[in-house]
Design brief:
Largest sheet: 8 strands, mixed
Distance between the termini: 31 Å
Radius of gyration: 17 Å
Shape: globular
Structural class: alpha/beta
Number of helices: 11
Order of helices and strands: EEEHEHEHEHHHHHEHEHH
Number of strands: 8
């Protein structure tokens, strides 16, 4: 495990790393998750092995610090990841990013184009104000203190054992602020940023999640959209073969 300072108070963002060839692959997790849990089994596959791989935990999540005075906006998460990559001397990385991590990855690629040469986004949040069924919407519906005191336990009971296993490790206040930041979106919004990027961009949409909104426009902007059969939101668990092929660039 390695770490880098991401704020003025000396808080640390942490990641685990597997050595290998460059360019590095950087794995970013979703809201209330951890990178290694969702992606280590993919990085270890034969078609992906041998590349330097970093599994980064966002501030407030997993092994990273959880400062109380941090905002946990998409931009702040992106800057924290940038601090980690700068400390690791990573440039021109491939970002493999899930859900909220995809939103952060888009913002990072926009703010620090030197760090990113390719984006593989899995069901990334591209718009502000997601539907009420989204996990971030349920969390953000609470006031912050109410979520910390009561809502966190309720959400853990509601999300099911797999998501709860990592969500319970996230700081409740950081989790709430991250959800609020995700619902607020970036400025310009993530979809607009993604359409304007010039790096290689792949968007994975699980078959069971339905048609991706704005697909035609994304494809017109050069984003390759892949509908993954037999998969829902967690494509890397539901169809790891297709997921690994997309990361390898062979899908």
């Amino acid at each position: 495990m390695q770490q880098a300072t991401f704020d003025s108070r000396g808080s640390h963002i942490r990641w685990t790393e597997v050595p290998g060839a460059e360019p590095a692959r950087v794995y970013l997790h979703g809201l209330g998750s951890m990178s290694a849990i969702y992606h280590a089994h993919i990085a270890a596959r034969p078609e992906l092995a041998g590349r330097r791989s970093l599994f980064v935990d966002f501030p407030g999540h997993g092994t990273s610090d959880r400062p109380r005075d941090f905002g946990y906006t998409l931009e702040e998460h992106a800057d924290a990841v940038a601090a980690a990559l700068d400390a690791a001397r990573v440039t021109g990385a491939e970002l493999i990013a899930h859900s909220m991590g995809g939103a952060v990855g888009v913002v990072l690629a926009h703010r620090r184009p030197d760090l990113v040469t390719r984006l593989v986004l899995t069901e990334a949040n591209l718009d502000a104000s997601p539907p009420p069924t989204a996990g971030s919407s349920g969390i953000a519906a609470y006031e912050e203190d109410e979520f910390v005191e009561k809502g966190h336990a309720r959400v853990l009971d509601a999300v099911g054992p797999l998501w709860a296993a990592t969500m319970r490790l996230a700081d409740p206040r950081a989790l709430h602020r991250s959800a609020v930041g995700l619902r607020r979106g970036s400025e310009p919004v993530m979809r607009t940023l993604l359409e304007g990027l010039t790096v290689d961009r792949v968007f994975l949409q699980g078959e069971y999640s339905g048609e991706l909104a704005g697909r035609v426009r994304l494809e017109a902007a050069g984003v390759r959209v892949v509908t993954v059969p037999g998969a829902g939101h967690n494509v890397m668990f539901d169809n790891p073969d297709a997921f690994a092929a997309a990361v390898a660039g062979t899908a």
